[in-house]
Amino acid sequence: MNLLVIGTRGSPLALIQTQSIIDRLKQEYTDLEIKTKIIKTTGDQLCDYEHLEAIQQRGIFTKEIEKKLLEAEIDLAVHSLKDLPVEMPQGLEIAAIPPREDPRDCWVSLHYPHPDGLEPGAIVAVGSPRRANQLLRKRPDLRVVPIRGNVETRLKRLRENKEWMGTILAIAGIKRLGIDLSSFFCTPLGMDWMLAAPGQGALALETRQGDKRTKDLVQFLNDFPSACEVCAERSFLYELGGGCRAAVGAMAKVEGSKLVLYGIWWPEGSLRPKEGKVVGQIQEAKKLGQELAHLLKKL
Fold first, then answer.
1. Could you give the CA distance from residue 61 to residue 44 in angstroms, rounded to a whole number?
2. Are the CB atoms for 154 and 170 separated by under 8 Å?
3. Cα(230)–Cα(197) distance, integer angstroms
4. How far is residue 226 CA from its own chain's centroid?
5. What is the number of alpha carbons within 13 Å of residue 148 lying toward its C-beta?
6. CATH code, 105-188
7. Do domains 1-98+202-222 and 105-188 have the same CATH topology?
8. Under CATH, which number does the domain 1-98+202-222 receive?
9. Is 223-299 CATH 3.30.160.40?
């Protein structure tokens, strides 16, 4: 039976991302039957993510999907790579990384085009230690409050809360959802302001090890430069022992045959970050991530 069963979360963004993969597969294999299985994860069950301690767990948006993959209830899982823990479960592997969307974060505000124009004491709603720490590093005079939920929820809360002067979101999610931000200022943040989460903007197509059929089906979707960039970023995160909630930012860029990796890290309990960059051959992506982590640990 020429059937491929794909597992995904049921969020609007997850469904759009999965559909983009289905469309590419159907273009490539006109006789392939594809079914989608929506799987509710721990992260989805936490609703608006008020349970902050639970959010610290790794894999809250992926482990239930990976369980179905290991049990062969699905053949392929489509993940936002930044949600996928850097320690892969035994028996699973990333089979392909499609071309990456813009990995940067952007500043979103109803009133201010950039956070450097905020008044001292202005309140900014951010959803991760990585974003909060980097913002306060540039503007220690600002107040930061937590915000949870998907992109639409965060924008709704920003509209409703008149005390909040802005928030920071991933450009990739906004683009994929096709959200109209014409009533907002939406300004991409340069690396001097904000290094993204490792793997941000990339999708991961996960399969069972040894499932040659599925791996062969999705291989044409793999984008080598994107795969090298996220490999370096995830290697950097892994060596630092961090998860998706760690105060770690990373950005790798392919420049010809070279790979440049920038990283910033707040060790637990530290008020000051450690940061740096390394340059090497594109084929040495994993090694470069390790090298940068070891460099920052010595600072």
1. 7
2. no
3. 10
4. 13
5. 12
6. 3.40.190.10
7. yes
8. 3.40.190.10
9. yes
Would you kindly state where each structural domain of the chain is located, as residue ranges? 1-98+202-222, 105-188, 223-299
Residue ranges in the chain assigned as alpha helix (H): 12-28, 42-45, 52-55, 63-70, 129-138, 151-160, 171-177, 212-218, 224-240, 285-298
pLDDT at residue 1, rounded to an integer:
61
User: The tokens of 276 are what?
Assistant: 């740096």
SS3 149: coil
With cut-offs at 50, 70 and 90, classify the pLDDT of residue 285: very high
Catalytic residues: 83
Residue 48 has pLDDT above 50, yes or no: no
pLDDT of 85 > 80? The answer is: yes
Written as one letter, the residue type at 284 is E
Contact of 201 with 172, CB cutoff 8 Å: yes
CA angle 58/206/248 to nearest 5° reads 40
Of 49-53, 110-114, 270-274, 278-282, the range with the lowest mean pLDDT is: 49-53
pLDDT of amino acid 158: 97
- Other beta carbons within 10 Å of 196: 24
Res 44: pLDDT: 73
Report the C-alpha gap between 240 and 130 in whole angstroms.
Answer: 14
Instruction: Please report, as a single letter, which amino acid is at residue 230.
Output: V
Q: Are the C-beta atoms of residues 218 and 18 closer than 8 Å to each other?
A: no
Whether residue 239 is predicted with pLDDT greater than 90 in this model: the reply is yes
